[in-house]
Amino acid sequence: MTRSNIFYLTCFGFAIGILWRSFFQVGFQTIFFFGVLYILIILFALLILKKNWEIFISIFLIAFLFGIVRFQLADTPPSQIFEAEIGKEVSVSGLIVDEPSQSENESKFTLKTNTHEANTGIAIFSKNEEKYKYGDQLEILGMLEKPKNFTTDQGLEFDYLNYLRKDGIFYTMHNPQISIISSGHGNIVKRFLFATKERFDLAIVQAIPAPESALMGGLTLGERESFSESLRQAFIATGLIHIVAVSGYNVTLVAGWIMKILGFLPINFAIGGGIFTIFLYVIMTGGAQTAIRAGVMASLVLLAQITGRTYHVGRALVLAGAVMILINPFILAFDVSFQLSFLATIAVVYLTPLIEKYLLFIKWKSLRNIAAMTVAAYIFVLPFILYKIGNLSLVALPANLAILPLIPLTMILGFITGFAGMISPILGFIPGKISYALLHYELWATNLFAHIPFATIAIPYFPFALVILIYAIFIYILFLKHIKAPEKKTSLLLLLAVPFLITISAAGFFYYQHYKSNQTARTELEQLLSTQESKNKFEPNERTKSGGCKVNGPFPDRACTPGAVFPDATVEQICVKGYTKTVRNVSTALRKKVFEEYDIEYPQPRGAYEVDHLVPLALGGSNDIANLFPESAKPTPGFHEKDVVEVFLQQEVCSGRAALSASQRQIVTDWLAVYEKIPLEEIQAIKKKYGGYTNQ
User: Where is the DUF4131 domain (predicted)?
Assistant: First the structure.
């Protein structure tokens, strides 16, 4: 048995042990028992049998055991002190341990508590009244909540609980009272990096107008907080969301361009330029773990492209992955960015050289390399995307090919604009204008592809067993087939069509199943909204309470908010464009009174709550206080999801597919039942059109 075999056995056994323990609980007694058993097996194989296959199995089992032990050690339980306080108002103090992300509506940061000697992570979602920084010591008073999984737009459950847990976060707080006790704590290097990043971001905003500046922030810093909902949906629909994420793929493109620009210099200088670019990227993102992982992946890709020795780079890639999951074993099963980055790096290292040979008709070598990398990454990552995200973009390849060739130049100009602007806004003016032209084209192309009919389709179900089968075929073709028949290397690309065709065919099959399910849901909706009572006018119940009201999840207190309608509103009236503007009349005093009746502080930060019409104006609802209640955006489902229902029902009523009275009655009784039956494609279309903020 060679050292190479031992290395791969150890790494893969360790990874599988971590993966197995990620989903199954194991006690230390069980681990000890199997540990002793495995050691006995190894001793038996080495000293008595002296056969390779027994040694092979033994090494794998020992590595598997160590993987279980590593996860077990990292899997610290939540604090029992905090567990007893879930759902209660608590006071905690702690330190901000990461860079706060700030959007238009709220700030989000991680607080590491030092209350009751419990070192626990809490995700804080706060109003934008004050700016918080890494290293701030805070005193916080608010409702302690347990994170909950939620359903994505594609109909898949997102494991939000473990997504936060991988970063040591066990709880959340929304809009608590916050007091800054002191500042300047934490790691001095991280404070410097975050301060530099903030100045860089400000220089970008000063040189480039919105929304182009938001895209540049995503490209250079991986920031998407300033993206509107409609822009985010456009990038998802076109399969371009990866360009505004912290990924090794992006860094590889830019570092590769830098090396080509420095190609006239000795090779060592060119390599140094590429490595410096990767280092710069990691620095500008604040040295975040995702950025460091992206930098490692990008370095391995550059090494493969420079040396052409993918075998040794593959070994380095496996080692890098093993070290990363050794540091944080949660990322293997619960960090999609790590999983996508690892798969994309494999594709770029192993698939790109094969595909590039078939793209020789593209004369510009750099463009040919980018095209090959794009195709390779798309083919290899697609099965995982369908399983994990449930989104099949039919325009992803042309959209990526239309935009990706310009991304390295855009990012380089972005870095120049940012650093020059940090010195003086005047210095950042010219590169900022050039950057703006490129960014404007990229946004235009993204929106163009996103608005093509059926640009993206939802695949809510793609079985994990099929994903394993597809990647087993990939592994056989790329590695085992190549080893057995190296003389047929040129035919490997044709063989790669097999797993790709399996993926597309399976996606088509499951989409058809999803389509049939949608038709059934549509029929149920028609029955729900066209009942025998539809000809009778909707008459809400009387309002019996005017204080001490409590929301019930996404629903109001029925005694305080039974709903109210304009009795003379007709279908013809509500379907006239601009109707809601002519009848909307909710004063500030009335809004304040609604919050007071529900014992909720007023005012709330924009986007956290809205005074919602239970029966929307677009369905003939009135402005009476009996029809108003404070509805939150989070946790979901919240007012964004109800907005979708409101738009959908108005479209149904105005098209004649639903009765107005039945729609009014249903939205008062159980609007969530309608939301759960709306086809995913229609939800996506509404969100794309209205950006998730319909304000009906």
Answer: 33-178
